[in-house]
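Run log // design_07
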């Protein structure tokens, strides 16, 4: 059977016990007690009988923190024994400390109970002696009980409340700091994902066109074809470099050297399609007149533009020869975006890709509560996205 070991006493408790014991011994040596030897309640005369309650009280002080309730019960017996001797001031002072420590370190229910008991003892010590003896001096007994018992208990309760309030405030501060750190981490992660999508969508289209036309220029020994390819390569290089500089300007905090890039809108789709045609893609734009009617929310416009841009880039790299169609239609409170390109077996892509395009498009749709689907439909590959138009936004 395992024996439960009591926790080691706190160093401060040992110091309090030693100080109380030495102080009490000093009072015994000089013959100073709390009552005269001829006091009626003094059953054991002389200075030495006070040593037993003093020693027990000092031992209880050692356990004032580790076993506060047991120490208080034992100390109560010791202070009762001290009453029938000449008394020792150090014993009384150590008892008041036991009451204080019991309220401070005991469980909340025990702390409340100790406070109630000491309060009742104070009231009883005031009323009962006065009712029996009918002299004002009898009230002093209640004062003494209040000072020895209720005063330390009330002090311990006040200190306990302040300590609990400080711990609760510290816990709330730690929780607030933790939530702030979680919010910061999530914000950084979301911003990194957003910048990755923007960087991919803004630059990948130009780099794909450069890769495809440089391959054509190297594989076809025709000066006119090479000149056309080099022209497209230069145009895409300049445009890609311009967009990269704009993106870097946005990322520089406090930088006023770069103007921010204009937000992509549905009105810019015609220019986007024209650029895809210049890169050699046979593409048509079918945008219903009501698709841009009124004001579409800016995040929806940006997401629709980027999804069309990425879809055209993928068509340039992967689609079979044939026509690519871009269609935008508005159905009730939904903006429907559909890009379709010829689909079939190819030897490989015209330009290498990272595989992040579909992921980025899916993320853009999900962030705005839309739906996204990309896959083959018969002989064609279709990217279909439906964005809900936020209620209350002018349309």
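design_07 sequence
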């Amino acid at each position: 059977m395992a024996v439960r070991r009591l926790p080691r006493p706190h160093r401060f408790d040992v110091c309090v016990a030693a100080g109380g014991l030495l102080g009490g011994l000093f009072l015994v040596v000089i013959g100073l007690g709390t009552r005269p030897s001829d006091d009626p309640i003094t059953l054991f005369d002389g200075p030495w009988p006070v040593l037993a309650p003093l020693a027990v009280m000092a031992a209880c002080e050692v356990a004032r923190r580790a076993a506060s309730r047991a120490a208080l019960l034992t100390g109560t017996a010791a202070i009762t024994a001290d009453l029938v001797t000449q008394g020792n001031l150090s014993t009384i002072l150590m008892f008041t400390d036991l009451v204080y420590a019991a309220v401070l370190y005991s469980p909340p229910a025990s702390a409340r109970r100790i406070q109630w008991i000491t309060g009742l003892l104070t009231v009883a010590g005031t009323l009962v002696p006065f009712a029996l003896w009918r002299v004002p001096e009898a009230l002093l007994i209640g004062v003494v009980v209040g000072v020895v018992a209720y005063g330390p208990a009330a002090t311990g309760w006040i200190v306990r409340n302040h300590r609990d309030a400080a711990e609760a405030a510290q816990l709330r501060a730690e929780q607030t700091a933790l939530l702030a750190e979680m919010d910061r981490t999530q914000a950084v992660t979301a911003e990194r994902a957003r910048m990755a999508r923007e960087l991919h969508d803004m630059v990948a289209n130009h780099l794909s066109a450069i890769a495809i036309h440089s391959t054509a220029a190297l594989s076809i020994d025709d000066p006119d074809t090479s000149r056309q390819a080099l022209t497209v390569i230069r145009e895409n290089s300049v445009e890609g470099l311009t967009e990269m500089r704009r993106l870097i300007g946005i990322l520089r905090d406090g930088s006023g050297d770069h103007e921010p890039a204009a937000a992509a809108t549905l009105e810019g789709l015609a220019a986007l399609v024209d650029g895809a045609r210049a890169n050699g893609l046979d593409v048509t734009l079918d945008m219903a007149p009501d698709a841009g009617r009124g004001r579409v929310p800016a995040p929806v416009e940006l997401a629709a533009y980027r999804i069309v841009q990425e879809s055209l880039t993928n068509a340039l790299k992967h689609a079979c020869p044939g026509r690519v169609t871009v269609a935008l239609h508005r159905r009730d409170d939904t903006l429907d975006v559909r890009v379709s390109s010829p689909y079939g077996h190819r030897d490989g892509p015209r330009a290498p890709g990272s595989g992040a395009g579909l992921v980025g498009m899916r993320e853009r749709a999900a962030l705005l509560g839309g739906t996204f689907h990309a896959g083959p439909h018969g002989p064609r590959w279709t990217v279909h996205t439906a964005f809900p138009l936020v209620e209350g936004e002018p349309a």
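The chain has two domains: 11-176, 263-395.
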